[in-house]
Amino acid sequence: VLSHNLCTVLNVPHDPVALEEHFRDDDEGPVSNQGYMPYLNKFILEKVQGNFDKVEFNRMCWTLCAKKNLSKTPLLISDEDAFKVWVIFNFLSEDKYPLIIVPEEIEYLLKKITEAMGAGWQQEQFDHYKIGLNTSREGLSAWELIELIGSGQFSKGMDRQTVSMAINEVFNELILDVLKQGYMLKKGHKRKNWMERWFVLKPNIISYYVSEDLKDKKGDIILDGNCCVEALPDRDGKKCLFLIKCLDKTFEISASDKKKKQEWIQAIQSTVNLLRAGSPPPHKEARQKRKELRQKLLAEQEELERQMKELQAANENKQKELETVRKQLEAAAARAAEEEKKRLQTQVELQDRFSLELEREKMVRQKMEEQVAQKSSELEQYLQRVRELEEMYKQLQEALEDEKQARQDEETVRKLQARLLEEESAKRAELEKWHLQQQQTIQMTEAEKQELENQRIIKEQALQVAMQQLKQLELERKEALEQYEEVKKKLETAANNTKSWKDKVAHHEGLIRLIEPGSKNPHLITNWGPAAFTEAELEQRQKSWKGKKATSE
C-alpha cells in the first residue's frame, strides 16, 4: 500500500512484479533483512522525474508521521496550519539527520509570521528564549517547532484566523514560491473585456484564477528573460494600467491603486531580472546565504576553539615548566647557600693552616732559587770552557797521524763532557719542575697538602741524590780536564816532532806529503794504498813539472 501510494503521488508507474521479485525469498516481509530502503531507492526514487505535486507528497509524508509524533496538547493552530509549519520546517532545517532547525532559522520564520500578522517583532523576548534554548540543545525538531508556534508564545493578542493567514502567507512564499498575489483586472484577448482575476506571481510564471481559493485556474503568463513590464497611461476609464510583454502575447492589467500597480511592476521586473541572471528565488537565495554564513561562523568558531585549546594546553605546559623551574631554582638556591656556608668555613680553616705552610715554602723556594742560580752560573762557565775546547779541537785537525790519534782522544773527552753537561741540564730541568710542582701544592686542600708534603720530602731526598750525582759529575769533569791536559801535552810534543819534518820536505813537496785529515772527495788509489793527495792536486803538480822541464830545455 505504501509503495502504491508513493508511486501515485510521485507520478511513477507502480510495478508490483518488481516488488514481489525483490522480496520473493523472504518470508518476513518488507521489514526483514532484505530491506525496504533498497527497493525504495531502486524502483521508486530513481524513477522520479520532478513533475509531481510536492504539496501532495508532503501531505502523504505528514499523514504517515503526524499521528505518532504530534503533541496531544491543544494548540492555537489547526492541523492544516501544523502541516504547513511542518513543511516549512523541512525547508529550513539543516541537511543532516536527525533534522533540526537552528535558532537563526527559528528567528527568521517567527519574524516572517509576525510581519505577516502585522505585529511588532519582540527581539528581547526571542533573545531570552534563545538563551534557554542554547543551554539545552542545538535547535528544535519539527514537532517542537509546531508546539512553539501553536502555543502562541510569540503571537499573543492575535486570534487563530490571523495566525492561520500569516502561516499560509509564509507557506505560499517559502514552499509554493509565491512572490506576490492579489486581485487585479485583466483585459481579455478575444472579447477585450475586463475581468477581475486572482493573480499569483511565481519565479517563472504568473497564474490567474477566478478567486483566491485557486480552484478555477484561467491561465498562465510564462515569464523568461525576454519579458518586460511597462506602465501605461489611464485610458478607457481604466486606471493604474501596466503591460506585460512576452514573446507571443501581451497582457494588459489594471491594479486597484497606484501603490499596488508599482508593487506589481517592481515584483514582476525583479522576477524577470532573476531569470535573466539565472538566480534562484529571493527566499531560497537568502536561505543559502544564511546557511553559508552559519557554516562560516561555525568553522571560525571551531578554529577559534581549536586555537584556544592549543593556547590553553601550551599555557598549562608553560605553567608546569615554570613551576618545575621555580622548584629547581629554590632547591639550587638552598644547595648553593649550604655549599657557600661550608666553603666559607673551610676557607677560614684552610687559610689559617696554609699561612704557616706558605712561609715555610717561601723559605725553601728562596734556597732552591739560590742553588739554581749558582748552578746556572757554573753551567755557563762550563759551556764557555766547552766552546774553548771545540776551538782548540778545530786547530788540532791539521795534525799528523799522532795528532789525529790525539784528536780522537780529545773527541772522546769532549763527548764525555757533553754527556756530563746534558746530565747536568736534565738534573737542572728536573729541579725546576720539582720547584714548580712545590709552588702549585700551596693551593691544594689539607689532605692534598699532607700528600704533597710527603712528595716534597721524597723530592728533597731525590734532590740530595741529584746533588751528589752532580758532585760526582763535577769530579768526572775535572778528571776529563786532566785527561785533556795530558792529550794537549801529547799534541804539543807531536807538533814539535812534526815541525822538523815539515822543514825537511818543504823543497821535496812532490815526493812526500804530510798526512793530514783527508777531504770528503774520493781519493786516488796507488799500488802502495790510498794516495796522499787528490786528483786535482796531481794534475796541478804535473802541470808544474812540465813547465819546469820546458824552461830547463
TrEMBL record:
Keywords: Cell membrane, Cell projection, Coiled coil, Cytoplasm, DNA-binding, Membrane, Nucleus, Phosphoprotein. Residues 283-504 form a coiled coil. The keyword Iron does not apply. GO terms for molecular function: DNA binding. It is found in: Cell membrane; Cell projection, Lamellipodium; Cytoplasm; Nucleus. InterPro entries: EF-hand_SWAP70_N, PH-like_dom_sf, PH_domain, PH_SWAP70. One of its GO terms (cellular component) is lamellipodium. Its main location: membrane. PROSITE patterns: PH_DOMAIN (PS50003). Pfam families: EF-hand_SWAP70_N, PH. SUPFAM superfamilies: PH domain-like (SSF50729). Residues 177-273 form the PH domain. The keyword Cell membrane applies. The SWAP complex consists of NPM1, NCL, PARP1 and SWAP70. Phosphatidylinositol 3,4,5-trisphosphate-dependent guanine nucleotide exchange factor (GEF) which, independently of RAS, transduces signals from tyrosine kinase receptors to RAC. It also mediates signaling of membrane ruffling. Regulates the actin cytoskeleton as an effector or adapter protein in response to agonist stimulated phosphatidylinositol (3,4)-bisphosphate production and cell protrusion. This is Switch-associated protein 70. It comes from Campylorhamphus procurvoides. The gene is Swap70.
